[in-house]
Structures are given as structure tokens and as C-alpha cells.
Amino acid sequence: LNDGKEFVASAPLNEDGSKKAGVLYIVNQLFSMYFRLNTLRLCKNLLRPVESRNLHEKGNMGEMVTYRYYAGRLNMFEDQYEAAESNLDYALKHCHRAAI
After folding, report:
1. In this predicted model, what pLDDT tens digit does every residue of 36-50 receive, in sequence order?
2. Band (71; pLDDT cuts 50, 70, 90)
3. Where are the alpha helices (DSSP H) in the chain?
4. How far is the CA of 89 from the CAs of 23, 34, 46, 48, 92, in angstroms?
């Protein structure tokens, strides 16, 4: 904070450091917390903004895999088995080899 740079929340960023890139990371962290706290009803609010802007199809592969994993788990709890299979299958196929 003392380096003389000033943070401006409305400052435009390029695609690599865009605000959109950080959204998926934050959503994944919230998913993790909500699952630990067993408050799955709050997870539904996270799906709409991400999927309406297709953020789950762009960005860092690790973040996309994590998002699909939590979305798949949520689909299982909501008895949406086909969507769960699709999301969990994507997460398994695209995760890092050392993670299996």
C-alpha cells in the first residue's frame, strides 16, 4: 500500500488481468465455504452470474475445473443427475494428473 500506486475500482483492465478473471476465483472460494458450512441454498446465487456471462468457459483451467466440480456437486444435491454427470465428468477429464 505504501508503494505509491493507487487502487481505482472502476479502472479498466486488460483481458489477462480483468475483473472477470477474478470472479471465478471468488465464486470458487464461496462455493468451498458454503459447502463446508452446509448452506447449499446460497450456492444457487453464485451460478446465475457466472453462467449468464459464460465465465465458466473462459479463463484459468484450474478455476474452470473447480467451478465445474462444485456445480456438479450442487446438481447432485438438487437431483439434476444429467447436469451433475456432465459437470463432474468435465472436472475429472480436465483436472491435473497429480490431483487424481
Report:
1. 999 999 998 999 888
2. very high
3. 19-37, 44-52, 61-77, 81-94
4. 23, 22, 21, 21, 5
